[in-house]
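To the team - NAP complex, inputs and output below.
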Amino acid sequence: MTVVHRFHAEELKASHDMMAIMEDVRLVRSLAYINGKWVTGEHFHPVENPADGAVIGYFTQLSQQQIEQAIIKADAAFRRWRKMQAETRSEILMRWHDLIVQSKQDLARLMVMEQGKTVNDALGEIEYGASFIRWFAEEARRSYGETIPSHIPNAQLSTIREPIGVAALITPWNFPNAMITRKAAAALAVGCPVLIKPASETPFSALALAELADRAGFPPGTFNVVTGEAEMISQALCASEKVKALSFTGSTRVGKMLLRDAAQTVKKCSMELGGNAPFIVLPDMDMSLAAKAAVDAKFQTAGQDCLAANRIFVPQQHYEIFLEAFAHEMNQIVLGNGLDARTTMGPLINRAAVHKAHNLVRDALDKGARLVAGYHRSVPGENFFAPTLLADVTAEMAVYRQENFCPVAGVLPYQDLDAVIEMSNDTEYGLAAYVYGHNIHQIWQCMRGLEFGMVSINSVKMTGHPIPFGGVKQSGLGREGGVHGFEEYSEIKYCCLGALPTASGS
Ligand code: NAP
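Output:
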């Protein structure tokens, strides 16, 4: 049933195509959301549908002064939000969760329009994103401190977990819903207001979350979405004494700049950065099962996933069989507009991403890689890139060294497991690694030897609300989700309650 709300057409600034797919048109927002109000900047920036390049709408660009005002309002909200009963914060978060779940079809279609992924993947992301809100709504009631056996005579020692203050959250375009909720739910649950800066390619998913947060009843200033020029906004957030935590998901390049800027005010920083995941197939594995898993681990979100399997290592004796099985599985992928139910892989985010993918393939072929399948297959639009399988990849190739972020799979043979673990670790990244096989000794060797924050054995799916998501090395700092998720937005206050001497001197 269509939900009808009153709205101002000029405020929405969205195309007819976009409005036509929405049941609840109030979820389509162009303005920023600050202190419980929709706020316009002076300019608007277009957002394109990656599937066909059509402009689907515009988002507003705030000024520096408006960002500074938003910080002041969020800081004022902190004084009230932190004092609210944890139970009440939990109830508001649960209302937000329920509204998101009720609107998931609309939110998914909106995401497909701006991000390009398939509607099934988008629905999966909405549910994944909502699961963090539910988890942290429950955890809000369990933000415990501890008591410490005292080393000081007659003293009581304890700790209290306290919210740190305003949290700035800067997020990417590849998961425009879940990368926000995974941060915001933890921050809000523990008592911190949030200022969210979404990626310019995908602002509408963030603004729809703000509309639902408004309906859920977050007090003004607690939940804010600021849009506009990335560098100006992040510098204003980093320079402010009032912003106490900075949580970023995005490229390692930008993460390093933000760490530098946040040092000015010594903020608590958590960084979810790039990856270069190895996928190790053990010799006792069934090669068709391994190939199917590797295709799943490589091509989700058209390869634009920090967890994507970037370097696939296969035992020499099974190499050609694996390549054949992989190519067969990969060729089943159906390219198209994500709104079409038959599509299993959508476009890349923009033309620059397609250009980068071509460069990676050309570099690899120039350096001796073998094109096994894909690449020359016809594609349904300029932002599409055919899933491509390259064999005989070497460490000299960019496809091996860089985070690909595109549907190009690089496979290489190995003979020795110790050498493969060493090669897997030969990257500045350390987010996730996959291992497929049966031999428990070899699996254990991989689990211990791989220098990655997350190692998944015999499962492509590894993430979810109860786990500590995060990387080591230049893949990041801190963990999101699970019981560790609060730590990025809270401080431990130690209290020593001494005993004054009594009149009797005891
Ligand atoms: P990105 O270019 O680093 O952008 C991420 C965010 O930073 C966006 O909001 C962007 O805003 C902003 N930004 C860009 N340039 C900036 C600058 N100079 N100063 C301040 N902010 C700036 O990353 P992306 O291309 O959106 O996302 C892909 C990357 O994210 C990949 O490396 C991927 O591995 C990583 N990622 C990591 C995880 C994880 O959990 N570890 C999850 C998802 C993605 P604008 O859009 O307005 O430019």
